[in-house]
From TrEMBL:
Signal peptide stretch: 1-20
Keyword DNA damage: no
Main location: membrane
Alphabetical list of CDD domains matching this protein: ligand_gated_channel
Entry's family note: Belongs to the TonB-dependent receptor family.
Source organism per UniProt: Sphingomonas aurea
Top-level taxon in the UniProt lineage: Bacteria
Ranges where the TonB-dependent receptor-like beta-barrel domain occurs: 175-596
Name of the protein in its database record: TonB-dependent receptor
Pfam hit, one: Plug
Amino acid sequence: MLKYLLLSTALLAAPAAAQSLDQPETTATTSGDDQIVVTAARAEQSVREVGQAITVINRDEIERRQTVVIADLLATTPGVTVTRTGSIGGQTSLRIRGAEADQTLVVIDGVRVNDPSAPGGGFDFANLLSSSVERVEILRGPNSVPWGSQAIGGVVNIITRAPTEGFSARANAEYGYADQAFASAGVAGGTGALSGSLTGGFLRTDGISAAASGSERDGYRQYGANGRLGLEIAPGIGIDLRGWYAHSRAQIDGFSNSPPYGLIDADEYSKSQEIYGYAGVHADTADGRLRNRAAFTIADINRDNYLTQASAEPYFGGRGRSQRYEYQGDFRIVEQARLIAGAEHEDSRYRDGDTVEKTGITSVYGELIVKPITALTVTGGVRYDDHRRFGDRTTFGADAALALGEGTTIRASYGEGFKAPSLYQLYSSIGNEALRPETARNVDVGVSQSFLGGAARVGATWFHRNTRNQIDFDLGTFTYGNIARARAQGVEFEIALKPVEALTFTGNYSYIDSENRSPGANFGRDLLRRPRQTVTANIDYRFPFGLSVGGTVTHIGDSFDNAANTVRLDGYVLAGIRAELPIAERLSIYGRVDNLFDEDYRVVTGYGVFGRAAYGGVRVKLG
């Protein structure tokens, strides 16, 4: 009965948002307390109306930091840790507030891109380059009401370049350490009812040895492109098409089958192809109070591993595909009340050799956003999921933001998350069809304060999350099981200063106590590869004649590389410097040095890391 009641509510009460998730980037965003975000409720909101913790990275920051691999930039944000197995292209895992890497939902232009064929159904950040990325929103904490399964740790929402009026173009090319060449170019434009954008990128590098003990370099190459097309059929009614393509090839090392065991140089390599697509329609009615969006999305990921460069056939192949049909509504009931609701269905498929498995989930959700007084915004929501294998599940969430005078905002939220077992965990040769979904509950409280007319901002957040029925590999049965429980709690501090127009300083500190609560020998021990403390500081200065200089320092604390906490990963400090100089109105040259002091460290035992590395490039912008 509840299923049909919620479905009726979603369809009748939520004629929806043309610009909720699919067109957030068409809305101008500003810094600080005036930013517009879309990830919390899957609809546009001022950040001062959101009770959850969100970090926003825009294109200016990506270019200022001279980012190539997006994960390297995300690693410097509050509550986020990143590990990579060796060279560029190695498995890259992102953990938010101590959650498992595959408990983070990743969205690119409205398409959920987590891989159904990956062991935990997670997203590998190894192949996510900066060429097409215009904006990133990182929401920390469970948020399953609008997003559904996998949003236990949080949500990373990637938004690419939107079509624009008129014509604009940008391009950059750089070269540096390990024969690394990176180039990207993009155009955007529109006239009348038709608008579009197209961006392409290329990266190749000799890399470093994935094996810390190795000597031969493990290179990487990627070709990628994305495009968007918008057509306004009538005022407030239109069609949106988006596509993303990336083809990557990475050399990898293997493990020794004889003593001494460990990672060694090998001739192996992997190939992956990622295709993501979105086709949607939107319609605004009732003078814009009712916004409607319907869409079909697809994510298709192919992965193959080869033993040698001469191998004709892969020794491993994974094929993951998910297709979604979705409708979302945004109804402005009155000025003080807003209802966001939707219905969606997802089919996912996993293929490993001759094994093909499928599953599906149908969902409805609703969120009510009310402002009982001007300064207070309260959001409450519920989601109902009907999983083909696991049946019904209802998820709740609520948050509140109190925006007081003088730049003070107080936030609080309660969020639930759940994650259905991946198809690999259920049906692979080491799978377990008796698995149950993972669940989590999270509370957090935070405050932010602006000073000096917005020239200074500070913020602090406390959070606590419990995770139950967590899936882990059971060495006793040599299969997956719901044998794990985890608790994560901590604090996050942020500061941003702009004492003069030319100088910017930002910094953050995170303390995350992520603890194994599973009964057994490892009860109370730290979860692996979760440093308790991380600190990042950025400073940038622009001289009157145009030269910009900056630097980033990041400290990652000690952690452990195994569940028993017997293999320690020592903490380390990384420093980098950068500069950019305009040499014409639309042309500039830039350069950077990463790992300035040539720090020797490990993020995964046995895998190598980059030492000091320098790069230089040129950037051009038109329009």
